[in-house]
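Trying the structure run again after the queue cleared.
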Amino acid sequence: MPHPGSFGLLLTLHVLLAIFLVGPLTLVCASVPSLLRTGPRALSILRLAARLVRGFAMASLLIVVTGAGMVHQGSFGSVRSFSDSWLLGSLVLWVVACGTCLAVIAPGLSHAIAEIDAGGDARRRLGSITGGAVLSSACWVVVIALMVVKPGA
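Done. Tokens:
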């Protein structure tokens, strides 16, 4: 089914934003544990990673906004309402993924950077940051699967 007009524009923006925001966010989160193991030599990259995690997680709100715009456009195929279980589940998983990035990974990185700056060893932060990266990545994978499969739609 072709998607003309504003719905097609929103769908295109939604997909592009998902690719260009979620992909890099997931990559940065996945690379942080190995950067932490590197220690002081990776300090400048860790600072950048902390900014990127915050920035990409906050910018992912644009994905939700374009998705909400598509739902608001009306009944177009499988996009009906926020009460659809696959859509509601995707929103909940987005909150979990972004919340994990903003409440676990980014602050963990900030603390790790401060510890490295003070001459300490930040590897004790590996567990929580790695766990956060795994959780957020798993959420993104399930969101993408739900967007493609749309169970019950």
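The chain has one domain: 5-149. Worth checking whether this holds up in the mutant runs.
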